Structure formats: C-alpha cells, structure tokens
Amino acid sequence: MKISYLDKVMYAGNTSRWLMGQLLHTEKTEPFVGYKGKGLEWGKIDQNVVNDIDFLELHPDDKSTFEIPECVSRLPNLKALKIPSWFVPHLKDNSLPNSVESLHIGVRSEKKTKNQLG
User: Fold this and answer.
1) pTM of the model
2) 6 within some domain
3) pLDDT (tens digit per residue) in 94-108
C-alpha cells in the first residue's frame, strides 16, 4: 500500500474525535475530554453513528491486536484515522476507506507496556 502525505489535510483538534478502544482504553479512562459520548467498542460501530465518524483513533490494549477492524474500512465519511505504529506492517489495500485523507501513526500510550497502562 502506498501512503502519501502530499496535498493531504492534517486534521487537528477542531474536529470531533471518536475513540475505538478495548478494555483499558475507553472514553471514561482516556484523559481527553472530547471522547465523552464518542467511545466505541472494539470492532463494533452502531449504524446510527456510522455517518458521524470523521476522525477515529484506534487504541488497542497491547500489541497482540494489530489490524484495523473491518467495520472501520466501511466508514463512509472517515477523513482522519489514528493508528498505533505496529499496525503499519499489517495495512492492506482494503484496510482504509477511500474517504481517508489523513493517516496519523502513533498513539500516546504505545510506549507503555500493558502493565503500565492500568
């Protein structure tokens, strides 16, 4: 897969961010207040919010999760996606929806081990 940042919009804090986490990373446990009401269960997206998601951050608990959930690849209005760096080698042509304009690599907590995250 070719990833190019040329002529791409870099989304900043002015857009609503959604969080898809597992057990340790939820809208209640992450310090960013903008996640309130924007938390998603890993690999599941309710149909009533599919069109609302334009910026999504994926925060798995540890490095045993390494692929973008299939439901993310079907988001029609996703413009920006933030993924952990260890997802990069596993990206496939169909991992991202065509609407993605900006791919952010690296999450704030990825340098911590699972034991440090608790």
Assistant:
1) 0.80
2) no
3) 999 999 988 988 876
